[in-house]
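Sequence only, no structure available. Ideas?
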Amino acid sequence: MESSLQVLGISKEIVEFKRSTNSLDDLLAMAEGNFRNMSKFLHPDRNRFPGAEDHFIRLSDAIEDLRDPDGLELAIERLVGEADKQANLRRIKQSFERDIEKRNLDAVLGLLVNIGQFNVLGITGPTSFLLQLGMSRTILDVNINHESTLYLTSQDEDVLPEKTEKVRFANGRWQEMYLANETRRWLSHKPEASTRVIVVGFIPTKALYHRSDATYEVVSEDRAELSDKLSESRVIPVWSEPSEAWFLQHIEAKPKKHSEVVVRNHRGRLAIIGSIQAKAIF
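Reply:
I predicted one. Tokens follow.
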């Protein structure tokens, strides 16, 4: 059944716009204006063509209907209510499908508990990996129980090399060479904030160009020591729910040169923890 608003030339698009701008009260004024304009041509006293009187009667019935608040409300519901119902049904269906996808994904990721990290990483014994995450470093240790532990590191911003070039693993610590006053020295990384993780897989560095959100955030801290102002920083991976982890579609089973490592924590959340720079048996 045609809405009285449509009879008076007011479309569904106009009603939706007025509703979105909280100005539905304007609809009656618009209908009154359209009625006056069309009546000038269709009133029986002015138009003797066949069908003009019937059209004028339809216009008159429509405007009387809209002048009643209940009639106006019903006309609006008739015009846009069905569209709202269909849109709501689509939202419910999409939400249901997303829930199924999330449960399926959680189930698959849950199976990783049974996968040995030695096999995933292609190693033969307890191994430590130095990873580069943004301008900072992270450390991934895999022990004999096939469990992996992620460590963040913090260091002086002025000392840390922008890119890993020369590195060594000595006395259980990762060290990198840096240049200070034209002298080459070794910087020892300080592991902090351990987190038990499971390696999910790897993504190529080129996939980062397609990222839809940040993969890490930088925490900086200025501290005074002997009147010298020093700045320390560390990078924190951004953890995501599997359903929101944009990088999952790029994941690969085996690491390649400078692959980004993706891990899962005990809460089932995923994160990129850095690209592999070096590995060493410990």
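Residues 20 and 127 are 59 Å apart (CA to CA).
Hope that gets you unstuck.
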